[in-house]
Structure formats: structure tokens, C-alpha cells
Amino acid sequence: MTHPLTARVQAEIARREADLIALTRDLIRIPTLNPPGRNYRQICDYLAARLEGAGFTCTLLRAQGAPGDSDAHPRWNLIARREGARPGDCVHFNGHHDVVEVGHGWTRDPFGAQIEAGRIYGRGACDMKGGIAASIIAAEAFLALCPDFAGAVEISATADEESGGFGGVAWLAERGWFAPERVQHVLIPEPLHKDRICLGHRGVWWAEVETRGRIAHGSMPFLGDSAIRHMGAVLAEIERSLYPLLAGKRTAMPVIPEGARQSTLNINSIHGGEPEPEPGYTGLPAPCVADRCRIILDRRFLIEEEVGEVKAEVTALLERVKAARPSFEYEVRDLFEVQPSMTDREAPVVQATAHAIASVLGAEAAYVVSPGTYDQKHIDRIGRLKNCIAYGPGVLDIAHQPDEWIGIEDMKDSAAVMALVLADLLG
Ligand SMILES: [Zn+2]
Q1: What pLDDT, in 10s, does the model give residues 213-224?
Q2: Which domains can be identified in the chain, with CATH numbers?
Q3: pTM score, two decimals?
């Protein structure tokens, strides 16, 4: 059944269309590029001024000492909270304010926020300034409709999601800002599309594998031991045994796109032997047997897998190579790991969002899981809050691309959904 406030919410959002567009454009015009982390204070100040005007209490927090934080590029975060008329739950919208580099291939000004045929263009338009703007308009529409609501509404704008979130949500979660005592429901308006609920993401393990040999003159390679040949054997074994093994590991997680519904492995980089010459160097290389070769593995794993078993697969593979190559030596270094996260479909924020999508769009919500991680990992693992989803306007494929855009109608529809979620959980 349709939520009884649907028509009134839609009318409130429609009334705010010009405001929604202006807000989105203002956010795009603040180039919060990460790296290195530009204009974080400026965008937090802008949003704080806006939200204070809507009755929110704003706290600006610098993630002092977090990776990337410096006086030149401080990691600023904003938490805005509006208390209701009586006790109740807190619904929190979390958006990252950083955007990735511009890159090549743009036909529009990446920070011009040009409007064309119902779309607003710019770096960060869909990932995720359009989502931040939609959640703010949703909150303001809800406050106008339900001034005596229970509980609290929170909106945060956080740093560094694009580089792991350590100066943003992770830093805040470590300090209790996402603890279940103070926040009960979290929506992250990432561009998953207005009819989809993203329940979580796969896990990640990044590792560096180094093979070792012995340097010698390249004209007498038999006097050395080539780390590159050892790595060749490792890569052959990965092709022979590991890729087929991973292809057989299917998940019940509804990951999109479909190809990511299994364990995957990307070999992110390979470096061996002498370093690449400096640009402009015109000489020849020196003849040497390579004594070191390194690859970076980017392994994405499933909720059905344990990270320990994921690591053990690689160690077992390296031991097989070692058994066939007497002089083979290797080292594995852990770089980064994230546990998979998946919120239960019965969780209150999922149920409320599904009901709101059905009311606004007249269609059943689709449940998805992201192939890559986002800030939900910190809310889940550090904040210990399981009632969290990503839901927001925009088309994921357009994120990080040239001529990135956000659709105005999409923003309006998802703002109506978010306002109904507030009405459902706090009304
Ligand atoms: Zn994003």
C-alpha cells in the first residue's frame, strides 16, 4: 500500500525543485578534489550555514592525524543534527563531500554545473553531491510536513571516501559518532539508482607478493636467479589454479553487475628488475638479472568466505610454486583488508526504504550489493551499526567518468523516497 503522506511529500519536493537545483550546483562548484583534499573546509562551512538555517546544530570536526590530514589539506567533516519534539530514533544521512580527479575527455566545465536537458553536469554530480543535495531537501521537506516528529535527523558530509574514508567516516566512527546509542538508521545517498537498495558490499584484500632472486650480469644469467622468471611461474599458477577456483565461488549476495557475483582477483600492478627510466632519459638499460619482482593483488571476496581462507589460498599457491622451483623465495605483505558487509533485508531502514520506493515509484525496490566497498564498512565494523544501506539518485556507471551528470527528476524522486523514510521511521 502507498504511504499516506506520499502525495504531500511529492508536492513539498516539487515546490523545492529550484532550491534542489541551486544547492546541487553550488556543491559542484566547490572543487573538493581528492587527492589531495581541496576545499573541505569551504564545503563544510557552506553546508553548515545552510543546515543551521533549517534548525540543525552543526559540528565541524577535523580528522587531525588521520592519513592525508595536513595544515595544507585538513580533513574537515560536518555533522548536523536536528532534535525532534519527543524521544525516538535518529535517522542519519551520510554523504562524502570529496570527488575524484577530473581526468580527460570532458566536453563541459567539470566545475561549471551546467544544466542541459534535465541533467546537471560536473565532477561529483552523481558521486555524490546530487545525493547530498537530495537528502538535504528530503530532510527539509520532512521538517516542514512533520514539525513535531520523534527522535532526530542527522546529516553528515564527510571526507575522503574516495581514498578509503580514514579521515572521514572511519575517524568519526572511532569517536562514537555512529554508535548505536546515538544513531539507529543510516542511509548513504551514493548513486545506486532511485529504485535500488544497496545492502552492502563484498570484502577486499590487497596484498603485495614479492619474488626474490639474485642479481648478476645479464650476459651470464645462469650466475644469477631471475625474480621475474619466478614471478612468471607464480602468474602461470594463478591462471592454472586460482582463477578457476575463484570462478567456482558464487555468492548469494545480489551483487551488481552480475559478473561480480563471484570471487574476483585483479593483478593491479607488476614491477620487476631495474626501475622504469626517468622521463626524458635517452640511454639504454644496464644488463642485469632481476633480483626482485612484485605484484599487487586486489582480491574481492564474498560474505561466504573468511579472509583467513582467502589469504591461505595464495600462500598454498606460492608453496606449490616453491615445491617445483628449488631456489624460489617469496614474501607476502598485507596492504589493506575490508570485511564484506550486508544489512539484513528485514532491517528497519531497508523495510522503510522499500515501502517508500513502492509508494513514490509504484514499483518494487531491487536489492543489490556493491562490487566495491564504500563507507558502510566503517559504520558496520567500527560503529557496530548494522542498520545501514546505500540509497540515492544517479547512475553508478557514470561515477568518476568524464561529463558526469545527475538527473533532476531522479533527485526529486529519491528525495521524496528519503522524506518518506523519515516520515515512516520518525513520524
Ligand atoms: Zn561515492
Answers
A1: 999 999 999 999
A2: 6-201+340-426 (3.40.630.10), 203-274+285-338 (3.30.70.360)
A3: 0.91
